Amino acid sequence: MSIALDVHLKIGGIIFPDMDQCDFTGPFEALARVPNSSFMTLWKDKNPVRDLAGMQLLADTTFEEAPQLDVLLVPGGHGQEALMHDETVLSFISNQAAGARYVFSVCTGALLCGAAGLLQGKHATTHWTAMEVLPLYGAIPGNERVVIDDRFISAGGVTAGIDGSLIVVSLLRGEKVAQELQLYMAYDPQPPFQSGSPEAAPADIVVTVTERARTITQRRLITGRAYQAALTKA
């Protein structure tokens, strides 16, 4: 059931250094246009941050200023790894999740949610290079482009965030509104190459991209194993 249109919705997305901006800006296209809603760009402060490729983004709302949100968007990217022990970020995610209607992660934003304690026993997905990290946070990994488990919605790598955001819109305001936004966005994927997943891509392409991600993948595994060991010790 969608939420009554006269209920104003508060939606917010976190930004952080070395994120992948498309994890944020892709979903922003839909989430910022939800009828009778306001969208907040969130970070610890209002200083510019640069994404992984150097694009500058600016928060309009600090964590301290943020109200209780109806939807929290948690994007990913290489910079996620630097936040896995950041209590300010993890506490914000955890506290917001307690009262939010939905928490929506994109790409390796799911790992941040895991570090915040949100993935225990939850079905979730993430970028394909980080899929083996999910179980270390108690998650049940799924290969679907978007996975819904109660109030937790996760999307796979990067562009899957657009798919996930339209699903979130449908949960908030109904499928008709989501379809209207999809048409406005002209979101009609017709990729020029069939290499958008490790299952579809040529084997040599998979090897190249996997190798390119090896360093960050190993760091994520080390962090996840340390998290799991700490839980076991506790």
UniProtKB/TrEMBL annotation:
Residues 14-163 form the DJ-1/PfpI domain. InterPro entries: Class_I_gatase-like, DJ-1/PfpI, INH-QAR. CDD domains: GATase1_PfpI_2 (cd03139). Pfam families: DJ-1_PfpI. One of its GO terms (biological process) is regulation of DNA-templated transcription. This is DJ-1/PfpI family protein. It comes from Paraburkholderia acidiphila.
